[in-house]
Amino acid sequence: MYVVGDERIIMTLINHAKKIMLVFGTRPEAIKMCPLVKELQSRQEIHVIVAVTGQHRTMLDQVLRVFQVVPDYDLGIMKEKQTLFDITSLVLNGMKEILEKERPDMEGKRRDRHHEWKRDFCHWRRGLRHV
Predict the structure, then answer these.
(1) So what's the pLDDT on residue 1?
(2) 7 in helix, strand or coil?
(3) Would you kindly state where each structural domain of the chain is located, as residue ranges?
(4) In the CATH hierarchy, which fold is given to the domain comprising 7-130?
(5) Contact in structure between 70 and 47 (CB atoms under 8 Å)
(6) Angstrom distance (rounded) from CA 86 to CA 32
(7) Taking the model in full, what pTM does it have?
(8) pLDDT tens digits, residue range 23-54?
(9) What does the mean pLDDT of the chain come to?
(10) Which of 10, 26, 94, 131 has the least CB density, counted as fewest CB within 10 Å?
(11) Cβ–Cβ under 8 Å, residues 111 and 87
(12) d(CA 5, CA 32)
């Protein structure tokens, strides 16, 4: 877990990346990632890109409002009567498009067991470093 104010993590990010994308989608992930978003946004030397998958839509939006975080990208993957295949293809295609457009130096995320492998697969294919 990221700890806001942990200078080792912040310095690692600053030393290795100037353009960082943070990806999350559930309420628990947002609670953990929003403080990191705010901390990195306060650093002028870092360009922060926030992408959300849109799981837990209502609860996610509540957390984003509390922390005043506005995502740059929202995949909005949750649809009525969707299948696991639908979710997988939406995440893979959505992340591919974002990564090709933004080309971040590094990506940070919280572990979401269901969507983790899909994001990791996209990032591995793009040669992107993880923190």
Answers:
(1) 38
(2) helix
(3) 7-130
(4) Rossmann fold (3.40.50)
(5) no
(6) 27
(7) 0.74
(8) 888 888 899 889 989 988 998 888 999 999 98
(9) 79
(10) 131
(11) no
(12) 13
**CB contact at 8 A, 52 and 36:** no
Average pLDDT over every residue of 71-93: 88
Residue-wise pLDDT for 83-118, tens only, equals 888 888 888 899 899 999 998 887 665 555 555 555
**Where are the extended beta strands (E) located within the chain?**
19-24, 47-52, 73-74, 106-109, 129-130
71 contacts 55 by C-beta, under 8 angstroms: no
- Nearest CA-CA partner of 91 in 117, 63, 126, 58: 117
Question: Which residues face 47 on adjacent strands?
Answer: 19
Q: Which two tokens stand for residue 63?
A: 């957390």
* 3 SS3 class: coil
Which strands form 73-74's sheet, in the order they lie side by side?
Answer: 73-74, 47-52, 19-24, 106-109, 129-130
Q: How many Cα atoms are found within 13 Å in the side-chain-facing hemisphere of 122?
A: 22
Task: Pull the structure tokens for residue 108.
Answer: 């940070």
